[in-house]
Fold this protein.
Amino acid sequence: MKKKIVLLICIIMSLGINAQSVIGAWENYTTSENGDKLRNVVIFANGYQVLTTYNATTGKFIHSNGGTWKLKGDIMTEKVEFHTDNSERVGTEVSFKVIITDNVIEIVDSNMKLNRIDNGVPGKLQGAWLMSGRIREGKTELRDTSRPRKTMKILSGTRFQWIAYNTETKQFMGTGGGTYTTMNGEYTENIEFFSRDDSKAGISLKFNYELIDGKWHHKGLSSKGDPIHEIWNMRE
């Protein structure tokens, strides 16, 4: 079996694994100790990633972690920026071998195997974004995106997730995600999990969106029904 894995790695390496082959969304399903079906979803954008686990039936949020990532050969290295179960993991790095094909990512020497959901398309908003400001009563309030307190949103071709966290205090404030569509200037989020309120799973929110000088303007009503006009910058 080990010989087969080594051979497969060699074949993939000869074909040239590159970071672009990872971009998109991936998933697998597991079973909890009490028999619940859990869905695990990973979104990879350029340089940033997030993994989340939630109840596949009810949408109850269970876990999320993520941060930066890089791929060198068949070694993936991730640096943790947020972790809901263990804040002490924030700031640490972990490296592991991966086998990547068109539709599967497998972490060698583990039971982790993920199937591709999408490869970053259609994804008009695909990428990692940081909230950089709000417009309130016609006044623009800018936010320093280099500060440790961040609100990041990662989108693949079909899936989205936002995360609020602080890399300095290692605090995790909240997250939510699911699927999204963009059509005729309208951005729709279909929420599948929401850490602050599990009852939000299953609702859809519609917003107007516009890209102005590379900035994503996001306007509509929040999950609480409050009017919002947010500005997001692509994370570098």
User: Anything to note?
Assistant: Confidence is low (pLDDT under 50) at residues 1-16. Helices lie at 2-15. The two ends are 40 Å apart (CA to CA).
